Amino acid sequence: MTLWGGRFGGEMSDVTRWFTGDTSDRRLLRFDIEGSMAHVTMLGDAGIIDTEDAAILIGGLEEILDASDDFEFRETDEDVHTAVERRLGELVGDVAARLHTGRSRNDQVALDLRLYMRNAADERTAQLAEWAETLATFAERTTDVLIPTYTHLQQAQVTSLGNHLLAYAWMAVRDLGRFADCALRLNESPLGAGASAGSTLPLDREQVAESLGMLRPIPNTLDAVGSRDFVAEYVFCCAQAMVNLSRFAEEIILWSTAEFGWVRLGDDVSTGSSALPHKRNPDIAELVRGRAATLVGDVSAILALQKGLPLAYNRDLQEDKRIVFHADDVLAGSVAAMSALLDGIEFSPPVPGAETTALDLAEGLVRRGVPFREAHSIVGRLVRTLEDDGRRLAETTVGDLDAIDPRFETADLDLLDPVSSRSDSPQSVRDQVAALRDRLGRSTG
Q: Do residues 243 and 122 both lie within one domain?
């Protein structure tokens, strides 16, 4: 079934039907029905169709919605819109022909997509909030587990594993905030824009928007049907969240190596090698890292899709659904997988080396009035001297300090203890967790 054909004398070829058809939009079924119900109600209230016909149409659409989990699509259905109208005709007869009054597939699909993405944004927000809470819970358990921070992948300063995990929790809070912001711009109704410039019928666009719980109709009809910046924004939100997950995945991969030895992956979240009996592979983390790359591609694809399109609607925009569905599915699956991975990890990082206290030693001199740049150079000479002697900073003696600079004191040896050097405290981690949970409550409440 197609929603057009009167001006054509022949049938569409099989190759045209195959190439121009779209089965990816079938997941929009529920939203297409909900939008159609709001549209039909408005048509009846405005007197554009008989109220009796409107009631019949609503009844048929409700029947389709109730059975939507078992909806049978046919190969001849050009898209989800034609499938719904075809099934409606089977249920209510000729009155189904009134369903499309005052509407085009152009504004219809734009509405369906916005409704889908509004719902998906709520789901991703809730999912990311749960992920942030999972990280916060692990942070509470690891307030006293000390690790080095890294810059340039070289050990830098001392912090707690809890503080490190909270960095990713805060990223997740920003990610869910982006989805919440995006949802505000999604929540406007394009219905009534028609093919491009509206309709001569007295449509009540405000009623439709209100009945769908949307903020307002989109003011410009060409913009309503011809723009997909809202899709690009949503896909970017997915991609940024995936990039943040990928960064954590990369650290899990590093930490699980024999060289790091920080974590042990549980049997339930590991895989083995077909050739190497000893292997315990972090495949979940590696796949998250890999799939993040595909979402970077999705962002490029949706931007490129729009860049050369004149107003208003062009069939190129049919491809937007595949992009957004892929981005949304990958993020949803990756958050769930990373949550399972974290639950199956045992952390046992070694105590950081004394080199992570070098800044503390320099700042000890600063407290005695030595300019920081000079103090930095003094400690640098100490490190170099020890390295030349085949020793580590932990092996520094009072004699080493005196030989480098007389302003060092014996008590400065105490500054070389990584345990006392940590940049945070257990209480500061707990305070962060409380602040994060407060933010989550305000973001999702």
A: yes
> pTM to 2 decimals?
0.92
Among this protein's residues, is 278 annotated catalytic? no
Long-range contacts: 209-213, Cβ < 8 Å, 24+? 211/38, 211/41, 211/42, 212/34, 212/35, 212/38, 212/111, 212/115, 213/187
Report how far residue 357's alpha carbon sits from residue 365's, in angstroms, rounded to the nearest whole number: 13
Q: How many domains does the chain have?
A: 3
Residue 328 sits in a domain of what CATH number? 1.20.200.10
81 catalytically annotated: no
Catalytic residue among 13, 39, 164, 273: 273
Catalytic residue among 13, 68, 104, 152: 152
What is the pLDDT averaged over residues 348-376?
A: 96
Pairing of strands 188-189, 216-217: parallel
Q: Is residue 1 part of a domain?
A: no
Write out the residue range of the structural domain in which residue 91 sits.
14-101
Q: Do both 233 and 117 map to the same domain?
A: yes
Quick: pLDDT tens for 231-278: 999 999 999 999 999 999 999 999 999 999 999 998 898 888 889 888
